[in-house]
Amino acid sequence: MKPPIILINYKAYENSYGEKGMEISKKIEKVSKEYGVPIIVSVPATMIYRLSKETELIVYAQHVDGLDHGAKTGSILPEMVKDAGGKGSLLNHSERRIRLDEIHDAIIRMRKLGMESVVCVDRYELVHSMGILNPDAILIEPPELIGTGIAVSKAKPEVITRAVDEIKKVKGVYLIAGAGITSGEDVYKAIELGADGIGVASAVMKAKDPEKVVSDLVSQALKAIDKRGF
């Protein structure tokens, strides 16, 4: 994982799985190859194996349970995700909240397996405390802006700048900004404010031309990163 980090969450949209899921994934992969920028896709568990085999995208689960093997019906263990080809997972998304101890357990288990973890938080005050758990990245997303098309980088830039101040208190953890990101301009602003990348969902998954949208996001991310001197 290195800047610019582009993370696309498929959620459970109609085009997040099956042939529609493959179609949009191929378009995202095309952009990734064109710009030479790895793109992380956080996908339904049923798509992890197929996408890891049929694309060069970095495939994440949308959630894992930091549990041991055993009588844990319905659980998705990090070992299962890795066996299916997954490279990491989101944790604690606003639509899938879990307890702090569960976050910690999952991070530890994934780290032992060589997997990446991205922990979601809904306010900058949590960035430092979550960063102490040593995930690979923190994704800050004010829930009131998720899916609105109103970018956090425009509506609440102070959320990013304050989160940047907090992430500096820990070493080796990246900061990703999300919620309402819809355009390359939004991405550029978020990285200009100090984020190492962005997380998006509906802007891509609901787009009439997802390839064009992803291309815009990635190209502007590269420009912003170059300006910052990475």
TrEMBL record:
Q: Please provide the record's keywords in A-Z order.
A: Cytoplasm, Gluconeogenesis, Glycolysis, Isomerase
Gene name of this polypeptide: tpiA
> CDD domains, alphabetically?
TIM
- Supply the HAMAP family for this chain: TIM_A (MF_00147_A)
- UniProt pathway annotation: Carbohydrate biosynthesis; gluconeogenesis; Carbohydrate degradation; glycolysis; D-glyceraldehyde 3-phosphate from glycerone phosphate: step 1/1
Q: Could you say which EC number(s) this protein's record lists?
A: 5.3.1.1
Which PROSITE patterns does this one have? Answer: TIM_2
The entry's substrate-binding residues are: N9, Y10, K11, I146, G180, A201, S202
A single Gene Ontology CC annotation of this entry is: cytoplasm
State its role. Answer: Involved in the gluconeogenesis. Catalyzes stereospecifically the conversion of dihydroxyacetone phosphate (DHAP) to D-glyceraldehyde-3-phosphate (G3P).
Q: Family assignment?
A: Belongs to the triosephosphate isomerase family.
Catalytic activities = D-glyceraldehyde 3-phosphate = dihydroxyacetone phosphate
Please list the residues that make up the active site.
H93, E141
InterPro entries given in the database record: Aldolase_TIM, TIM_sf, Triosephosphate_isomerase, Triosephosphate_isomerase_arc
- What GO terms in the biological process aspect are recorded for it? gluconeogenesis; glycolytic process
The subunit structure is: Homotetramer; dimer of dimers.
Q: What is this protein's record name? A: Triosephosphate isomerase
